[in-house]
Amino acid sequence: MSKKIRLGILGGGADSLIGVLHRVASQINDNYQIVGAVFNPDYEENLAFAKEIDIPTDRIYKDFDTLVAEEMKLPKEDRIQVCSILTPNFLHFPMAKKLLDNGFHVICEKPMTTTHDEAKILLEAQKKTGAVFAVTHTYTGYPMVRQMREMIKAGELGKIHKVDARYYQGWINPIIHNKEKRSSVWRLDPKKAGISSCMGDIGVHAFNLVEYTTGLKIRSLLCDFNYLYSDNQMDVDGTVLIRMGEHSKGVIRGSQVATGEENGLAIAIYGEKASLRWEQERPNYLYKMSDTEPTQIYKPGHAYNSKLSLDGTKLPPGHPEGIFDSMANIYLGVARAIRGQKYNDGEFPTIVDGVRGLNFIESTVESHKKGNVWVELVD
Amino acid sequence: MSKKIRLGILGGGADSLIGVLHRVASQINDNYQIVGAVFNPDYEENLAFAKEIDIPTDRIYKDFDTLVAEEMKLPKEDRIQVCSILTPNFLHFPMAKKLLDNGFHVICEKPMTTTHDEAKILLEAQKKTGAVFAVTHTYTGYPMVRQMREMIKAGELGKIHKVDARYYQGWINPIIHNKEKRSSVWRLDPKKAGISSCMGDIGVHAFNLVEYTTGLKIRSLLCDFNYLYSDNQMDVDGTVLIRMGEHSKGVIRGSQVATGEENGLAIAIYGEKASLRWEQERPNYLYKMSDTEPTQIYKPGHAYNSKLSLDGTKLPPGHPEGIFDSMANIYLGVARAIRGQKYNDGEFPTIVDGVRGLNFIESTVESHKKGNVWVELVD
Amino acid sequence: MSKKIRLGILGGGADSLIGVLHRVASQINDNYQIVGAVFNPDYEENLAFAKEIDIPTDRIYKDFDTLVAEEMKLPKEDRIQVCSILTPNFLHFPMAKKLLDNGFHVICEKPMTTTHDEAKILLEAQKKTGAVFAVTHTYTGYPMVRQMREMIKAGELGKIHKVDARYYQGWINPIIHNKEKRSSVWRLDPKKAGISSCMGDIGVHAFNLVEYTTGLKIRSLLCDFNYLYSDNQMDVDGTVLIRMGEHSKGVIRGSQVATGEENGLAIAIYGEKASLRWEQERPNYLYKMSDTEPTQIYKPGHAYNSKLSLDGTKLPPGHPEGIFDSMANIYLGVARAIRGQKYNDGEFPTIVDGVRGLNFIESTVESHKKGNVWVELVD
Amino acid sequence: MSKKIRLGILGGGADSLIGVLHRVASQINDNYQIVGAVFNPDYEENLAFAKEIDIPTDRIYKDFDTLVAEEMKLPKEDRIQVCSILTPNFLHFPMAKKLLDNGFHVICEKPMTTTHDEAKILLEAQKKTGAVFAVTHTYTGYPMVRQMREMIKAGELGKIHKVDARYYQGWINPIIHNKEKRSSVWRLDPKKAGISSCMGDIGVHAFNLVEYTTGLKIRSLLCDFNYLYSDNQMDVDGTVLIRMGEHSKGVIRGSQVATGEENGLAIAIYGEKASLRWEQERPNYLYKMSDTEPTQIYKPGHAYNSKLSLDGTKLPPGHPEGIFDSMANIYLGVARAIRGQKYNDGEFPTIVDGVRGLNFIESTVESHKKGNVWVELVD
Known about the structure:
Chains A, B, C, D: It holds the Pfam family GFO_IDH_MocA. Four copies of one chain form a homotetramer. Chain A is an alpha/beta fold. Chain A is built from 13 helices and 14 strands. In chain A, strand 1, helix 1 and strand 2 form a beta-alpha-beta unit. Chain A is globular and about 60 Å long. The relative contact order of chain A is 0.16. The mean pLDDT of chain A is 96.
């Protein structure tokens, strides 16, 4: 390692939680320096925020286009190397596209775009430059999620015949049950938020987790949404039957009206020889089960973990690292990729995962709208 | 209370686990005396078993028909009052039918019959005599399951918009993965075991738990099975989308190949105001969640519980009662009903629940076979 | 097995919880028949209770002395073989003594007597007849407690250097904080309840659990009580430093004012090679920990358990058995002993455990009263 | 907020875990910039490390004295404002003393010094300048630890009559059981590591947690150590009886040989009205118990939490923050104090806590060495 990577931030100003998450994560492993940003569409607020977090204001730009234009005038060794896109979903695509076209690396929040078609266009653009492109499926950075991936890859579960993932939250309850709110909030307006609420916002994380950990591709799905109210236009709850193969099936359950659930992402993977269970809210506990042996509790930092898992732990066992550390692990992988250092498959989700995600989201909507029929995912 | 109820046992001899469960449960509240039985089709083994558990052998009969015939000769005050049917599934119907026709009360293991039609015939027969008829959905006897029912009935959850139940076991793994075993074992032979393995054996418990606790009826379902092998004829895993109303939906997940799972029946019920979560393997912990208050852990025996729940607890809080006690609560309710004492709705599952169960099982098979389409349940 | 053992019950009538526990436990494995009893000092209530639970009243006696006198007139093959003593503590000694002297077997609630001296007298009496004598340290009947014992005996933990046991309850809070109640209730009156409340009632269970599971003897102890109020004469909380050897130490913590705790008996045993943790309120989960391997969760009924543990399980894994089943296991061991059948060390706590318990209780009081000094336990 | 605070680092270079913890924590809330350091006694390694983490090397000094001398030459507005002392324990005192005498603020790892006398000297020095002085009892930064403090301060528990804290680790096992290692490692050499291993390293955290959360002072203690081997000179395990008042008692349990325990700090606080339980390894779960209500699970980020607790949470409920975030909260409080902003009592542990800690450590050693007698702590 040596000189810090020059990072630009798009969005994530003021009280933005995703902004805190990315900013902290970028600082955790001493790899990045924020050199430029458009934190906020309002230029004054933009500048004020930069001052608040003590970032030099000379490269705080008034808008995204200016950022690109001005940075391109700088010599390559001073120019922003990678931009984190934390803006509302519909801006992901145009920003990412322009960044790629101008040779920047990209870290993009999910969903990567608002349509599968846009996602495929980005993929083509990325292929041209070979830029590093990460989609922040944050949860893949947890040491025990990585451990699942490696244990499965090593064959510890045998053939996988069943996967059960869920992402349950309850936060949309106060909005959805209020007629006025549900008809006015941008989150539930398909024109502003895209075609799906529950699947687009959280279901896609569960989908990604399934493919990330198992190494399997979901081939087809059948989905049933719950809109809760007839005048509501967006899914706030849904169940997705999935098929990875003829005899390898499962279910993805998502909800934003699961009252009292906070951020309940969880997965259980059942294989011929053994199984794994993990929950995001207790990220440092991974359960390996079998029909004949005592269940084992894997925890981070122990020598029995895989290299990929151990690489994501900074402290000895028993010192709980959390979601900032998980995101930091993704930023660490991206840093290695940008520097051309050796890194492992699985250190960060790529643009290919982003494309898959959009394919999933669109397919769930299609399945539901056609009356809960099976829809094939493309490869 | 006074004189013990005269109980007959059909099946459940030798190493039968269901036999132990019923026998112990019947003794727990000092209500029943086993006076007659056909524990075993082999008369010698039948007699030997009666001696082993020290039951007088004079009313240990050589077969079911003899039991009925001989008992009918006895004066009513000596005659068996109620029979527990613990035989293989296909015998439930003929036995229950004959018992009802001869004026006996019945406690019947689930599934109550092998077809929905048989179930409806039993219901007609029961209506004629008004006999007490319990189907042993054992899990409804747990104090915290009863507490869920009462809390929901009292409106603590508000409108229920989501139900998520699962019953995961892994025990069939060693059979299903062995080609010879899976083609020879009676459990996976539809001619012997009925039309469904996973849904008939355990899915129906989850179904019953949903209806028992929520007080809602499942109106329609869509089901996808996993047979795991092309040469296997019975479902060993399946996911069922369910609808209780236009905006009240959910999912029932069942598996006998969920490697490492033991007896993983669980339910989560999400309402407008609050939610409940419960797991059979930790039966004395009930979680009530809301979006704004700390999650609450309800435990048995506390004064804050409902009357129905407290009636199912014998010891103070912290003294774990288990599955025998749960079944004993069902036997207690049946005893009260037989004695014409006051008892509450919910003390034991009735023949109506048995009919619903068969309707559920047949509908899952129909849905799957027709290509995962929606099937309506009758009322 | 064959003919049921003739059981007599002393105490435990009406609403007595300990009565329910013993009565149910005695019925669970088809070994005992209650043939005689003095459930209650009031003869009318005694008879009424016998009728309520449908026991023939001809051998329901008006008092203990009559029971012994009348039973001794019966031929040996009809006579009560074993009596369960469930009366208030101060009656344990005279009853047990007389029963032993007349050749009866005894099952005795804890504490076995009110003084160590009485306990030693009982031991002498028992040695003369060789009667079976069990002290109902109920918790030793749990399958996972037995499993701990067997794993330690097999050397899986190596040398044990640390033991940490606790028994925390909160039930005495409403009494102790009320000046009138705490000065009037028999529980806190040393003349009626013996010299110790917390250690005599629950601390002794923790003590027994330490010695039962580890196979070690506690050699000396130092104790500090908390009386909470200057006008209270009995310990309601205390911590006991213990030494099993020069480098093998530990702590026993007891409380009846641990607000919100229900029946919080727990133990952690740390050895050179591995450790074990267990909690009474989740009795079917045993954790084996080591410094280098994932923690393992042992559960009842699996083939990986010891013979002694498996003998205490009636159903397959995942079907939670509870405290009635634990007590039933003790009754099962006693039945085998009475019948002269083969049984294993550890199937029930004996009179020697009872003597140890009194030694412990008296030593804690002595240590505290002398100003928290070390007191040796005799062998 | 505005310009970042100029931070100096002493120690914590290379693979130092405590170095990572402080460095990351200082970056998390955008408050600090590391401007100077002596990461390592070896100047070359010192420089190399600064380059590795991309810090300008012009203020990387060859040793501590040079750092002070050179920084004092700088104008006040450029000079290091606060130094984090992460060096071996015996260096804490001389460094902290000199820093205070030269007007620097100090963040000091625990134990603050190696003796109580040194600690008192520091306190005097700090009083002279009024410098901000934090001792990094990291665990006080957790939102739920803060919540405990505030709930108790608000009287939710009533009078506290019992406190039970533990800090169990197993990491010293491989050293202590090896005769050669235990006689050579600096950790177990009193000349190098100070008078106590277990109490000095971890027991003091438990002590601090008791006083931090309850607001009570521990008045006296009685301690028993376990050295495990006769040739070992340092405590590796110990139990401490504590008294906060005549009727307010408790126990602190510490171990470095609790095989399989990772970083098992936990506390239970029992009050007249309610109780609290918390464990460091699941830091986001706080249990509030009472004798009559369901146990409540408090989690971070909910509006029902206190201001002090909410101030320590960056993300919505269900996004687990961990130990880095806990330390970052302490750094945040220190930043506010340095900037003269309003901050609350409890945002960081002060030098007074450091003095108390040394008083505790010395008292445990004194109690044990004198034969487990009571030792008074000074005020």
